[in-house]
Design goal:
This is ATPase AAA. By secondary structure, the protein is α/β, with parallel strands linked by helices. Helix content is 55%, strand content 10%. It has three domains: 59 residues, no CATH class; 177 residues, P-loop containing nucleotide triphosphate hydrolases (Rossmann fold); 80 residues, Orthogonal Bundle (Helicase, Ruva Protein, domain 3). A six-stranded mixed beta sheet has the order 1-3-4-5-2-6. A two-stranded parallel ribbon has the order 7-8.
């Protein structure tokens, strides 16, 4: 331990700040791992986990589990946003396969101490791929809500645009926070840094960042943070990077039955006659969950203003048609 770490431990003990005390202990564990002492690092991590489990059980007995406030490091202010979502997986309409795989990740995180007793580690790196609006970002929120962890949303495009030339060093600061502060970290638009090496449009800075990310994903995660990378363009990701994820989960546009479930869930406070769905399938086709939610919200707002609790088929069909028209124009403009 360094003198600085000893000071930090004593100060947190004096101030009664258990979260800071345990955070410093995890920093020491990470240092031990880097110095080639994995057994000592593992013992420290287990002790920290035991302390947190005991505190969680004690809080549960009182009826509430507190969540410590966590914020990005000062160097990342403006590039990383921290929130405490209350979303859960049960509030999402997901394909059975996706639902089951995410539930398995949550369970592994919750039982990580048991897994380590048998020489196993929980899944900590997820890659979510699929078209825009299919629920990738919301999934990160749901995972944070399920695990009662802060969600740190990293805007990679902003990181490049504001600090081009310093991006690799900023990424190192981010990696240090992931290792030291447990949370769910969403790396949105991951293709910004994960593009294939050797691409004709590649530049040295991006290649250095990609290499640093590859190295980071091989490092031990001392806090069991969950890193969730999301991309709409999996086809351009470097193969070496994709292989380092514990889970690669694909999101697709919802089938008619799933689309209907999304709308019904969104309009649960209103009366929807069964005849509303007759002949509505063409209007649902090709719309993402995000677009379906916006159509439902549009209808809901009109109903609230009109003081009615009923949703007509024509009203819903019109809202869906508007989303289809907008999507068609957007696609046409993007092709030009």
């Amino acid at each position: 331990m360094t003198t600085r770490q000893i000071f930090a431990l004593l100060n947190s003990h004096i101030e009664g700040d258990e979260d800071q005390f345990l955070s410093v202990a995890l920093q020491v564990a990470a240092q031990q791992a880097r110095e080639g002492k994995p057994d000592d690092a593992e013992k420290l991590k287990r002790l920290v986990q035991k302390a947190r489990d005991q505190r969680r059980l004690g809080a549960a007995a009182g009826g509430q589990t507190p969540i410590p406030m966590a914020r990005p490091r000062a160097e990342l202010q403006g590039l990383v946003e921290s929130t405490y979502p209350k979303t859960t997986l049960a509030s999402m309409v997901l394909a059975d396969d996706v639902q089951n795989r995410l539930a398995r990740v949550v369970r592994q995180q919750q039982e990580r101490s048991t897994l380590r007793d048998y020489g196993q580690k929980p899944a900590t790196h997820l890659l979510l791929v699929g078209p825009p609006g299919t629920g990738k970002t919301m999934t990160a929120s749901a995972l944070a809500g399920e695990l009662r962890l802060p969600l740190f949303t990293v805007r990679l495009e902003s990181l490049f645009s504001r600090y081009f030339g310093e991006t690799a060093s900023k990424m190192r600061v981010l990696f240090d926070q992931i290792a030291q502060t447990r949370g769910v970290y969403l790396l949105d638009e991951f293709d910004a840094i994960g593009a294939r090496r050797g691409d004709p449009n590649d530049v040295g800075e991006i290649r250095r960042v990609l290499n640093s990310v590859l190295a980071f994903m091989e490092e031990p995660n001392s806090t069991d943070s969950l890193v969730v990378a999301a991309t709409n363009h999996v086809e351009i990701l470097d193969g070496a990077l994709a292989r380092r994820f514990d889970e690669v989960i694909e999101y697709v546009l919802p089938a008619p039955a799933a689309a209907r479930a999304i709308i019904e869930n969104r309009l649960s406070r209103f009366k929807l006659n069964a005849r509303v769905w007759s002949g509505l399938a063409p209007a649902l086709e090709g719309l993402s969950p995000g677009e379906l939610v916006r159509a439902a919200d549009s209808v809901a707002k009109d109903a609230i203003i009109d003081g009615t609790t009923k949703i007509s088929a024509d009203t819903l069909r019109s809202a869906l048609h508007d989303r289809q028209t907008f999507k068609g124009k957007f696609r046409k403009n993007s092709d030009q």
